[in-house]
């Protein structure tokens, strides 16, 4: 009897052990932010199979770099365009990659504005959009082409259309002087940028904007929220001669774990099953061949929003990887709308030592063009940069009007020493005062604030000042050390911006913040 009882206890502990092991298995997926609405489907499936699904959301360029440098940190990769996987898979570790759904990159234009422009009646060409921008009848938001796939895809489509839709785009085509003139005119219509397609949607819902470039699926999600809020929906415009489609490819990263590989293939089969494909279609993703939506739900693929589902979409052909790389470099150094950025850098006493060293390393990532090139964050000579070091007061104001002056600016930052208390509001007001006088039709302005401590003062004076200038100038904040997320989030909310957490990796946070400008 005792022996039987003993064996029962052993069996019970063994079962608990196996259960604990099963619950402890994690499958980490490197993903674009546009998959957030699909995450619950994956999480639920993972639970049934004894896996915890961990989604790590990064922009397409960051994901490409992660795949190049740290593939061992991930088990799967799910990006909106397979080109980023191919460009990042330098170690040849990705396998079993398949498209799960598609979504075209489109303009979502306020319905009344689209009607006013005549975009609801006929096919719309990229030239039509360019003319509307030049006539100052249209402004739009778009993610950075060097940080997010929706921006990159739209940009490649624009280039093709403005070049007259060549059979294939070459590096020589990109040197066309008329192309440079036309793409700069088109990008002059961008009034806010972002490093994330999902965040761009959130920004649109918070503000008063004409239009945004994004995935059709994200425009559908935006419209569903706008309708709930009693607001005017966006009308979907497919740029006929510059249309691009994201293929949303999901691949396995082979780190030698056969069990995880088997789990991945079953999960991928689950995602491609008829029931799950129908569920994904309910989220505004296209799951039919050629982008055709079979039996579309009118509450999702609503034709009144301009959504076309009956005929196959005809996208442009993406160029070779070397041409894409050249195009992305030219976007940063020649084609994009210039940025005017004020960096407010905390040099209070609490920054002394490690904090100060990390701050200087972070700013060098942006000002040292060799480092910036690694992250596709190079500057053009049209970009303007101002650095405001501060503690309990504004300590100085240093400007660089062209790239050749960055080394001098960086030297000043590197030679500065930390001391004193902390007041984050004074340098922000100083930065906004400087930016309030610039023409926001010529520049994308932003303040990037970095602080490591709780600030004296409160937001009231900043609120009054910001309301008085009546301009859409974001203040992006980077939180470090003992910084108050409450204070920084107040500033982000006021200016329709974002707070980045730099407590674990300040360089990464700085890089991400600059990608939004």
Which terms would index this structure?
5-stranded mixed beta sheet, 517 residues, alpha/beta, globular
Structure, explained:
The protein is of the alpha/beta class and 517 residues long. Helices cover 43% and strands 18% of the residues. The chain contains 20 helices and 17 strands. It has a six-stranded mixed β-sheet, sandwiched between helices. Strands 2-1-3-11-4 form a five-stranded mixed β-sheet. Strands 5, 8, 9 and 10 form a four-stranded antiparallel β-sheet that branches. α18 (460-469) links the parallel β15 and β16. α14 runs parallel beside α20 (506-514). The longest helix has 22 residues, at 2-23. It starts with a helix and ends with a helix. Residues 6-22 have low confidence and may be disordered.
Number of helices: 20
- The number of distinct β-strands equals 17
Give the strand line-up of the largest sheet: 14-13-12-15-16-17
Our measurement of the CA-to-CA distance between the termini, rounded to an integer number of angstroms, reads 74 Å
Helix content: 40-55%
Structural class: alpha/beta
Percent of residues in β-strands: 15-25%
Ranges with pLDDT <50 over ≥5 residues? 6-22
Radius of gyration of CA atoms, rounded to a whole number: 25 Å
Overall mean pLDDT stands at 91
Q: Main β-sheet, in a few words?
A: 6 strands, mixed
Oligomer: single chain
Gross geometry: globular
